[in-house]
Amino acid sequence: ARITPLPVGCSAPYGSMAASGAAAVTLVQYVVLRGDLVRPPLSWPLGAVVAQGCHAALAAAHTHRQHPDTRAYLELGGAMRTVVLEASDEAALTTLAETLKQHSIDHEVWTEQPENTATCLALRPYPKDQVHQHLKKFKLLK
């Protein structure tokens, strides 16, 4: 098999590590949205809530764009894995953000303006086993 060198400054995608004998690493971007936004009394439109998740995910990827895990994740294209979880309310989201900060887990909290309301947070892409323990109490968003 012919190995094509990557352009200067590009990190090797994690999938290519398996070919060299290293175990493949599953990169995941976790997005945690407030579930109370779609329920009364707030009753935000679904599209507005989805936009919050998009903003947070893009902010996390942009802020940490030079991290090798983020670069490798973005190189995956259609094979990117994103997990969307639900925080019950703003207090739960804020508590999670503090926990992530205490454990030096890179993330971005999206705060909607002009309301100044924290609506979502997203981690930069991580190997699942590095961050899952901090997120396991949150259920998939439904």
UniProtKB/TrEMBL annotation:
<dbReference type="Pfam" id="PF01981">
    <property type="entry name" value="PTH2"/>
</dbReference>
<protein>
    <recommendedName>
        <fullName>peptidyl-tRNA hydrolase</fullName>
        <ecNumber>3.1.1.29</ecNumber>
    </recommendedName>
</protein>
<keyword id="KW-0378">Hydrolase</keyword>
<dbReference type="GO" id="GO:0004045">
    <property type="term" value="F:peptidyl-tRNA hydrolase activity"/>
</dbReference>
<dbReference type="InterPro" id="IPR042237">
    <property type="entry name" value="PTRHD1"/>
</dbReference>
<dbReference type="InterPro" id="IPR023476">
    <property type="entry name" value="Pep_tRNA_hydro_II_dom_sf"/>
</dbReference>
<dbReference type="InterPro" id="IPR002833">
    <property type="entry name" value="PTH2"/>
</dbReference>
